[in-house]
Write a structure and sequence with these properties.
CATH superfamily of the largest domain: Nucleotide-binding domain of ferredoxin-NADP reductase (FNR) module
CATH architecture of the largest domain: 3-Layer(aba) Sandwich
Structural class: alpha/beta
Largest sheet: 6 strands, antiparallel
Distance between the termini: 38 Å
Shape: globular
InterPro entries: FAD-bd_FR_type, FNR_nucleotide-bd, Riboflavin_synthase-like_b-brl
Organism: Oceanobacillus kapialis
CATH class of the largest domain: Alpha Beta
Radius of gyration: 18 Å
Number of domains: 2
Number of helices: 5
Protein name: Dihydropteridine reductase
Number of strands: 11
CATH topology of the largest domain: Rossmann fold
């Protein structure tokens, strides 16, 4: 396993609780839209076993052409050991990256694409939208739906509707409006639905989509294939 140590080059306060950490791109470090990486702090591999409290699976919110690896995350006042350390890091400090992979690249099958997310889950979708703007081949249109009860919606500069590019975006701040809209979107039976958020959020969305006739192969989750299959089959049994 290759471990890349890299420095924080910039810290952006997106909202009072959400920060984006921009990291320098190490030589040979590559990724694509929809990628996640494992981010870790000094000492995580010092013992016989990795210290998992110093490691976190994080989505990358940028694309390679932006010349920075973006990690966008919510840090609340009361937070985990990992988030507490992250909150205190400064520009110039080092972090480790390893096991970078994409479970949710943009599918180019000539269909409509719907991006369903909660809160900072939108960070996973930012690169997909930018990739679509750069090259729209074999994607009919994209619609993003995000729920965030804080009403501090992220990446407004990217998630701004652009009719000419067949891109629309919607933000809601409550579950009732959100799931009503998911039902409406699911009336489009021959499309692709990406879902990013907590496990509970994934389960609820899968249930609604399947009740509306959306097939498992149309639902994309930021999970390895085995986990994705488990989620889809588990919801089906409920």
């Amino acid at each position: 396993m290759q471990i890349y140590w890299t420095k924080i080059t910039k810290i952006i306060e997106e909202t009072p609780e959400v920060r984006t950490y921009l990291l320098a791109c190490p030589q040979d470090f590559t990724w694509e839209e929809g990628s996640h990486t494992h981010m870790a702090f000094e000492g995580f591999n010092a013992g016989d076993k990795p210290n998992r409290s110093l490691i976190r699976h994080m989505s990358i919110s940028t694309l390679p052409h932006e010349n920075a690896i973006g990690i966008t995350t919510r840090i609340r006042e009361q937070c985990s050991e990992f988030k507490t350390i992250l909150k205190n890091l400064k520009v110039g400090d080092e972090v480790a990256l390893f096991k970078t992979h994409s479970n949710v690249p943009l599918k180019r099958e000539g269909k409509n694409v719907y991006l369903l997310s909660a809160g900072v889950g939108l960070a996973t979708f930012r690169p997909l939208v930018l990739d679509y703007f750069k090259q729209a081949d074999n994607v009919n249109k994209i619609h993003s739906l995000n729920i965030d009860s804080s009403k501090e919606f992220l990446f407004n500069d990217v998630f701004e509707p652009i009719p000419d590019k067949k891109f629309t975006s919607q933000f809601v701040d409550n579950r009732t409006d959100y799931y009503e809209e998911v039902k409406n979107l699911a009336s489009d039976r021959d499309s692709i639905y990406y879902v990013v958020g907590s496990d509970e959020f994934l389960m609820e969305n899968i249930k609604v989509l399947q009740e509306q006739g959306i097939k498992p192969e149309q639902i994309m989750l930021d999970k390895h294939e085995r986990q994705r299959t488990e989620f889809l089959s588990l919801v089906k049994k409920v």
